[in-house]
Amino acid sequence: QQQVKQSPQSLIVQKGGISIINCAYENTAFDYFPWYQQFPGKGPALLIAIRPDVSEKKEGRFTISFNKSAKQFSLHIMDSQPGDSATYFCAASVGQKVTFGIGTKLQVIP
Amino acid sequence: GAGVSQSPRYKVAKRGQDVALRCDPISGHVSLFWYQQALGQGPEFLTYFQNEAQLDKSGLPSDRFFAERPEGSVSTLKIQRTQQEDSAVYLCASSLDPRAGGTDTQYFGPGTRLTVL
After folding, report:
1. What is the per-residue pLDDT for A97?
2. Which residues of chain B have a CB within 8 Å of the CB of A101?
3. Does A29 touch chain B (CB under 8 A)?
4. Which of B20, B23, B7, B13 is nearest to B82 (CA)?
5. Residue A50, by phi and psi: left (phi above 0), alpha (psi -120 to 50) or beta?
6. Which of A26-30, A97-101, B11-15 holds the top average pLDDT?
7. Do the chains contact at A103 and B40, CB–CB below 8 Å?
8. Could you point out which of A12, A72, A94, A109 has its C-alpha 20 to 30 Å from the C-alpha of B58?
9. Residue A103 phi/psi, 5° resolution?
10. So what's the pLDDT on residue B104?
11. How far apart are the C-alpha atoms of A21 and A9, rounded to whole Å?
12. Is B15 helix (H, G, I), strand (E, B) or coil?
């Protein structure tokens, strides 16, 4: 059972555009929602994270929007750059256990 | 400082062989995690250690999988009698302070890519 559903699985955005990745979860016990970035041959790296008592968090060009009632959250990458090309995972955790989405492969074209 | 390191980076095993995968966490990190990442999928939780204690092994797919961290630092994931479905990247992560709960940042190693023929 996929507890964290992520879409789209692949995304192509032009340089300077906005990349949007959406996630939904089922388990209302989740209390922390991180996003990870993974480059080929590397492990995932934490990008940005949010708690469910906050509706939005912004760090530089990256923004998480969180809708607790809908059990949905999304990542927006503003002014997308070719260096942002990577796979992005949303995740949700309760305690130490982190559940990842399937991933979105983002390609930013010049 | 050094990040999480894993060895070997690549491992090819014949079906039925036993394999051992090593993880060196960041020095001083109390918590250590193992994940399995199948091709085109997100990482899936396998097991979690706090120091030498294995507090959660609910994600281990079968009794062929065994993990240990005897001195609370280096950890080994062992897979006995490997099967083709065990082919995946095995990721190790560590975090500093378990008192922070799930909000404590997990730092991932580069993974070991296991291919079972």
Report:
1. 86
2. 42
3. no
4. B13
5. beta
6. B11-15
7. yes
8. A72
9. 100, 150
10. 76
11. 9
12. coil
The whole-angstrom distance between B62's CA and the closest CA on chain A is 18
Inter-chain contact A44–B43, Cβ cutoff 8 Å? yes
Distance of CA B68 to the CA centre of its chain: 10
Closest CA to B49 of B71, B78, B69, B20: B69
Measure CB to CB from residue A93 to each of B41, B102, B107 and give the nearest one: B102
Each residue of A25-74: pLDDT tens digit? Answer: 999 999 999 999 999 999 999 999 999 899 999 999 999 999 999 999 99
The structure tokens 């016990």 sit at: A29
> Which pLDDT does position A1 carry in this prediction?
55
Q: Which residues, in sequence order, are CB contacts of A40 under 8 Å at separation 6+? A: none
Query: CA-nearest residue of chain B to A48?
Result: B105
* C-alpha–C-alpha distance, residues A82 and A75, integer Å: 17
